[in-house]
CREG-like beta-barrel domain-containing protein (Kwoniella heveanensis BCC8398), 252 residues
Amino acid sequence: MLTKVFVALLAISSAASLTVPVHDTHRETLFEAAHNARQLLKDVKTGTMASVYPDSSDLSGRPFAMMEYHAPCYHNGSLTFILMPISRSTQNILRNKDHHATYTVSMPAEGIWSPMSRGRVALMGNMEFLKDLPQNEIDELSECYTTHHPDAKYWIPGRADSPHTSIWARLDTDSIYYVGGFGDTHYIGPIPVDLYAKSEKQVIKSIGAPTEEKTSKSEDTDQQQAGDWDLVRGGSEFDWMNEVEAQGQVIF
């Protein structure tokens, strides 16, 4: 009899814990979501880069997504990447005149009963390929990136013995979508870019952070083609777009 009473009380207690009144449950605010998104991108250093196949491809218009490294090296939340012409993502981005890309990061789900309850964020924007950087910015980017990804020291841009050509790139975000988890307790929806940029009280040291002048689009920028860029690898110049074509000729 006592056993039945105990089981009944346990069932009542469990049911009560699953039906907490709404007014007693804190729901993640927009401001908290902006901060949590910034923190997520600092804590989790790998994500998924999404791009679209160009018109020249048999897969024209289809989305493509693949795992990528990032590093949070800019105080405004822009992410740093090392991109390579051998990468399908890089090829797709370069062939888009605005270099559009979307990058998503999710909280680790290992050991979690419901991964859908975990936070994730999507950053949409354009990839800025960084050429002609002053040496101090190159050194700072290298230090920042390899702090987050020690193995990347073997393919740092400009390294003479690197197995692949690579270049520094920065994702400048113009739209953010955030899912904190389940909608009854977490924020789900867009996050204003300016709020995201200012949400972190202790920001990372700025490394050549983009200014309005740098990030504003002009007719010249819109018309710029990847083939105009002469980059340096191992002390010699090469044409970045030709390198992409060489890497991609077997799949186009």
Q: What stands out?
A: The first strand starts at residue 46 and ends at 52. Residues 2-17 form the longest helix (16 residues).
